[in-house]
Amino acid sequence: MAEGLKALGHECVVASDGDHWKDYPRDIDLRRGFGLKDGASFAWRLLKSLPKMRGYDIVQIINPVFLELKAERITPFYNYLRKNNKYVVMGAFGMDYYWAQVNTDIRPLRYSDFNIGNTIRNDNAAELFRKDMIGTSKEKLCKYVANDCDAIVAGLYEYWATYDVVPGLREKLTFIPFPIKPNNDIDYNAIDKIPDTLSLFIGMFPGRADYKGSDVLLAAAKAVKQRYPNKVQIKVAEGVPFKQYTQMMDSSDAILDQIYSYTPAMNSLLAMSKGIINIGGGEPENYDILGEDSLRPIINVEPNYESCYNEIEQLVLHPERIPELKRQSIEYVEKHHNYIKVAKQYEELYAKLL
Question: Which of 1, 69, 190, 338 has the fewest CB atoms inside 10 Å of its own CB, making it the most exposed?
């Protein structure tokens, strides 16, 4: 997003931990290591950076829990940003109190990380996140920031639907898609080729496989491969460096991603921008909120094994679909997630505040 705003002529400073292993570039490094020594170093760098975080028109925070600190220790830093800058915009981009509580108790979505219909998900990861977010200092922080900030931006349909049922928050809620830089190195000759073997890619992250449904997708893919051994290749990235992760993804036809999501998130969108088919979340609500009435690049799966197996099998049996799905994936990301277009949407929101 910062690159898009800079391209539009705005001054932007990014304070970030680099998203851990991805090590994204930033102006102010907020990466925190482990142990007392690393904690002390982080605290010193954070305090030293505070003068650089004042005097701005807009402060955009990615989440109410925006620092690698205990929630109660984040509040003074939030208040500092609030006092020393004009406006604060909060991102509804992932795990927070409302995401956990609303989808456990109110359940506006047919399925989510915390429910399937009226059934509450009780797998280890879902329970862990509930205990971390509900009835804790993180709940208090999330409520405080969400109610105090000037605007809330939801980056996916399901986050928008979650905040839209909360009185007092829906009034300050805006939907803006995630930004993706276009890929300028696409080999369209390769895109248009029907592969003899379908190459599937899946990233397995420790402690999150059952939470995101990667375990179900992988089991279904393995079963399809067992039935069609010469027509399917599966590449599993687990505990590999980010560079190797992206290399494995880049040479694939399709990515297997979240089954409890209505929409493709950053991992899938990045893959789609390269012409890689997303097998994951692509519900009608996703297309509706974007105003998309023709492109359908995502192979949508329901949150169960049978749906995952059937959709993967159908792609194996009908590989002639692959080139068109790849082309639509590139067009979809360029049409709705181009980082300049997204930056203009943020620019419009900021202008209203100012």
Answer: 190
